[in-house]
Amino acid sequence: MSYPDADALVVGGGLAGCTVATELARAGRRAVLLERSKAAHHKVCGEFLSGEAIHYLSRLNVDLAALGAVALRSVRLVLRSGVVEEKLPFAAYSLTRSLLDEELLRGAAVAGVDVQRNTNVETLKAENAAWWVSDRDDRTFRSKDVFLATGKYDLRGFPRPAGTHRGLVAFKMYYRLTPQQHAELGDAIELILFPGGYAGLQPVEGGRVNLCLLVTGGCLKAAGSKWAGVLPYLERNSSYLTKRLNGATPLLESPLTASRIPYGHMQASSSEGLWHVGDQAAVIPSFCGDGMAIALHSGAMAAHHFLKGDGAAVYQARLRSQLGRRLAIATRLSQVMVAWPGAAQVVKMAPGLLSFIASMTRIPDTALLR
After folding, report:
1. Contact 203, 190 (CB under 8 A)
2. CB burial string 45-78: b at 16+ within 10 A, e below
3. In this predicted structure, what is the pLDDT of residue 262?
4. Where is the FAD-binding domain (predicted)?
5. DSSP character for 156?
């Protein structure tokens, strides 16, 4: 079964995909969005919304307060030698992806996007000056322009390079902390360093907390290659996190996991009519907390250049010029934190260093679309 030609096909209905599809539909273009999920679901994501992310969500008419987003006001860097805390230099929130993504998909449909749920794309090929997309149900879609927004997962035949910070495995679990520990966490995001990785802990809506952590493959192997072994490893290497989780109730049957994440990847070029957005365009290390903002920014930038009549290569080069250096800095810092967590003690001797690092690893304010 073939669908009518679209002005643009968007493969993936996450932050980047919904952004580009909505912007195109608002401009009167026929955008078809292909999303594999049937309904709301969790994703491996820290769920930190920086000031840049808030800016783009406002453009999309997302009311964070109405959705129950939790305001975050400070960041704590937890070292073996102590804790360093600073106020965040921008407004920030947290909101679960299962809730946010559904709101963005709803908004896209309201804007006029043809949202196709439960669509598992199997092939993407260029033929006769157009891109052809086929799904598992033998449906065919065609357009001159395709926006690849599949997040952490690569479409068959379109793999990303391995990235420059390799060998990390991500875990995510929701918890309900004890009242005392939840109160002590407060409105902060905690970045907890330990040998072989780091973890982020922050409150989300509904009185829950999101624990996301990265460990090296070597550490995971030493822990028995299972989540049940990871927790004892953390207990041995982070008394702070052990205290936080003491008496906590896990809220998922098992953690979400992701591996072979190409941290440090920055898309260098693009084929004619193929636009890489979100994690398909750039993958920044998790500690920065700007991954969601980059996804939104890349989607908005791609739509902006498309509507100007620019090609995908122009967009890709512009995005690289905005983010390339910052992504490289963030990736190097992540490598250092994992390999030599003790090196982070320098922040204890340099007040304001956390804020400076944040400014050097985020989307520059001058790059944001207004």
Report:
1. no
2. bbbbbbbbbbbbbebbebebeebebbebeebbbb
3. 96
4. 6-128
5. T
131 secondary structure, DSSP code: E
Token pair, residue 325, equals 């250096």
Ranges of beta strands (E only) in the chain are: 8-11, 31-34, 48-49, 70-79, 82-94, 114-116, 121-127, 130-135, 140-143, 146-148, 168-176, 188-194, 197-204, 208-216, 249-250, 256-259, 274-276
In three-state secondary structure terms, 275 is: strand
Provide block-wise average pLDDT over 10 residues at a time, the chain (370 residues).
Answer: 84 98 98 95 96 97 98 94 90 97 98 97 94 95 97 94 94 98 98 95 98 94 90 91 96 96 93 96 94 98 98 96 96 92 78 81 94
Instruction: State the DSSP code for 348.
Output: G
Instruction: State residue 43's pLDDT score.
Output: 96
291: DSSP letter: H
Distance between CA atoms of 51 and 76, rounded to whole angstroms?
18
Distances (CA, A) of 366 to 2, 178, 243: 43, 42, 41
Instruction: Calculate the alpha carbon distances from 338 to 47, 164, 307, 332, 334 in Å.
Output: 21, 13, 42, 10, 6
- Cα separation of 167 and 4, whole Å? 43
What's the angle, vertex CA 361, arms to CA 151 and CA 275, rounded to 5? 35
Into which CATH architecture does domain 8-71+91-163+264-339 fall?
3-Layer(bba) Sandwich (3.50)
Question: Which residues are 212's β-sheet partners?
Answer: 172, 200
Sequence-ordered alpha helix ranges (H) in 14-68: 15-26, 51-59
Domain ranges in the chain are: 8-71+91-163+264-339
